[in-house]
């Protein structure tokens, strides 16, 4: 998966003459190099070499970049933080405290193992909930910065 030869080539790029980098550009991009300074040539070549060796950006990231470039606001992403096994989640609902233990595979509530927190939230409330939201494990990306 990791290619030492490519990594060595990339590490040596900044030591090459600009004329050599322009020749490399032609072979990697199949077009004449733009009038970039040496630093920009090195950065773009390094990225292209890695892209060809390891693959480019995933399609969902490309879509988000395209949308951003065209003025479309991104959807607010939510982060779910899965607690480590052994963590106790406590949620007060309808005046009663409910205790859940996080297991390596699943969650334990009142002696029963559930695959998801949503099942437990349904058991507690009688209505469909996002279990991560019910137990306060979802934060928006905006909240993470704080």
Amount of helix = 40-55%
Q: Helix count?
A: 7
Biggest β-sheet strands, sense, barrel:
4 strands, antiparallel
Q: Report the count of strand segments.
A: 6
Beta-strand content: 15-25%
Instruction: Note the overall shape.
Output: elongated
Determine the structural class based on helices, strands and strand pairing. alpha+beta
Q: Name the helix and strand elements from N-terminus to C-terminus, one letter apiece.
A: HHHHEEEEEHHEH
Strand order of the biggest β-sheet: 2-3-4-5
Low-pLDDT segments, ≥5 res: none
The termini sit apart by 36 Å
> Compute the gyration radius: what is it?
25 Å
Structural domain count: 2
**Average pLDDT for all residues:** 87
Structural notes for this entry:
- It contains seven helices and six strands.
- It is of the alpha+beta class.
- It has two domains: 53 residues; 68 residues, no CATH class.
- The strands form two sheets. A four-stranded antiparallel β-sheet has the order 2-3-4-5, covered by helices on one side.
- Strand 2 and strand 3 form a beta hairpin.
- It starts with a helix and ends with a helix.
């Amino acid at each position: 998966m990791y290619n030492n030869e490519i990594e060595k080539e990339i590490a040596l790029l900044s030591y090459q003459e600009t004329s050599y980098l322009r020749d490399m550009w032609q072979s990697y991009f199949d077009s004449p190099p733009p009038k970039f300074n040496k630093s920009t040539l090195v950065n773009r070549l390094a990225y292209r070499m890695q892209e060809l060796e390891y693959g480019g950006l995933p399609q969902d990231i490309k879509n988000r970049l395209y949308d951003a470039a065209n003025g479309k606001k991104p959807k607010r992403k939510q982060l779910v933080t899965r607690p480590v096994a052994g963590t106790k989640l406590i949620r007060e609902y309808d005046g009663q405290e409910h205790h859940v233990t996080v297991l390596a595979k699943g969650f334990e509530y009142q002696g029963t193992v559930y695959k998801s927190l949503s099942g437990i939230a349904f058991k507690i409330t009688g209505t469909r909930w996002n279990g991560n939201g019910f137990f306060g494990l979802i934060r928006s990306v905006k909240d993470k910065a704080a």
